[in-house]
């Protein structure tokens, strides 16, 4: 086998190591102990992983098929495979096992799933399919009522909890019953949901030690990328694949663990050395992406987290310009100002606007195009989520799995075939006599006269359509197979008519794209199964998405930016309650800091942070406090423009930032010469003029970041705008509170902030309320329950609660 390193060369395995820094080199060569590679943002982790795979093949003589590399997206897996092939060009691409966790689970269950009663043609249900299946077991409930239960079932599976397990800790006793009923139906149909790809693989490995031994003997090397994003079930699957002599390497960054809401468990990476004794930890701390000043801001905030492996990013890149923090009057001014900045050089392709919630994109979508700036929302409705595409896929799935009740329910009467609800119930009841085989059920119903009239005619044509389509598929005609299903089901005509009514729709074209896609796979059933699997595991590969020149500003939620980088990044909405959002505990706060770290480290050269004094939220004007993250950035690291918000007793005030008018000269060629609407956009260095450089301990700074400014604003009950208090006595009480704050020489320490039951409190979000419960959690932090006059109930961690005590 010949060898061609990425940068060329004579072919010696040692040339693989050329250009690696010392920690990267050590990570490639360490094969004697479990290895945890802590790879900071932009530190070249993908190069380390791919070089390590190539090194195992070229230097250690390990066959590619004995190396399992796991990452979290099919796109990343494909890129990894391409880079390894560039280093080992004579290797057979089919020999590589570079997959996602779920793709590995699908591969494993396709080969051994019959031991669990699965067949190789099982369908992988998405969220909508799973909800439909649960709804079929509980017809007395509406889908929207069942949706929270389905989410809890999926979350339980991600945590490694199986149906039938003790759920005594669950308050809603209906959940265990629904979990069991859902899983029984899923098993009866012979399909799996997304979480089952992991959970049922674990089940199989536990039930069949011989298969587990076979897997451990096969995979001599196991590498896991983005390990900080793994969930407890994936943690357990990995543990079952690792043998006593397995070369194990996991790569990740606990500072970039931002998917807890999807089930990711940061403890997996934090506790790795305890799980695998003798672990060696190598830190990749040199960043090749961002300027020094950008890294300084990111590092300043993330260093406040306690649940992390200690590390500090550094770079040989120039320090560059200081990141800009700009205060604006409201969310519309935020969009206009960013538009003016972008208009200076029109570098749309390398510009991204990041926000915490999807709702924040609206102003950018409206304002920027009016300024002649092209934009695109990244992560909007994807091709496979569109109704017409899901309909086509349901027909294909039913053709391959005759027990797929969810797909049958979706398509048996779409477009209408005269099969009403009673007819559907009759068919599904009859299906129990045929072990769930819906094709045999339709045949029986037609022969016995169970269906008559229009329903019989419709189901007859529906049933014959599948025979015709499957005959084409078995002859190797993938396109013919899909075309018959889409056309003879009436689906194509149904959506063509919709397109004619709405000229902006392209539903017919989407069905055509779906049909064309099947032509790209191996002819026959195996190819269609592979296509369906790829769709389930990597929906971004579908349709025509992404086939553009990219010359537009990217609008992206912060959670969708992992793996991306841009020359210029705007991190917007740095306001308490928005970013970070309202936190239940310290773990939530640390996750939000990690999200800030990820957002900031997407920027190569230019970083702009924005904070609005007021923002329209749910149709009401909300007056905002700046994000506490801003107070966690040391003085001197930011250039600040605009007026820092503060609150007066009867309205909104702001402290002067000094200067006005032009954009800062520290951003030459990008912002210079533009004027800001509304005035007041002066420039100063963060920490000057008494802001951000007030000294004191970290706890003091945190306390200050959570308190009102020079006064307190209270929103009227009947209005979302500023104005007087609804109760005049509150104005007196709050004025006294303001004076007391001004007289305090030192801020209140976080750990001294406690509330008593019966204490009257004031929230700028919810109004007047009373503490009805106060207790300490297991970590000693006080947790309080407050009932507000509006009837709303809320729970707060005392140290984070922005609540003023009334009567003190």
UniProtKB/TrEMBL annotation:
InterPro entries: DExx_box_DNA_helicase_dom_sf, DNA_helicase_UvrD-like_C, DNA_helicase_UvrD/REP, P-loop_NTPase, UvrD-like_ATP-bd. The keyword Iron does not apply. It comes from the Bacteria. Its EC number is 5.6.2.4. Keywords: ATP-binding, DNA-binding, Helicase, Hydrolase, Isomerase, Nucleotide-binding. Gene3D superfamilies: 1.10.10.160, P-loop containing nucleotide triphosphate hydrolases, PCRA, domain 4. GO terms for cellular component: cytosol; DNA helicase complex. Residues 292-563 form the UvrD-like helicase C-terminal domain. SUPFAM superfamilies: P-loop containing nucleoside triphosphate hydrolases. One of its GO terms (molecular function) is DNA binding. It catalyses: ATP + H2O = ADP + phosphate + H(+); Couples ATP hydrolysis with the unwinding of duplex DNA by translocating in the 3'-5' direction. Residues 18-291 form the UvrD-like helicase ATP-binding domain. ATP binds at residues 39-46. GO terms for biological process: recombinational repair. Belongs to the helicase family. UvrD subfamily. This is DNA 3'-5' helicase. It comes from Parasphaerochaeta coccoides (strain ATCC BAA-1237 / DSM 17374 / SPN1).
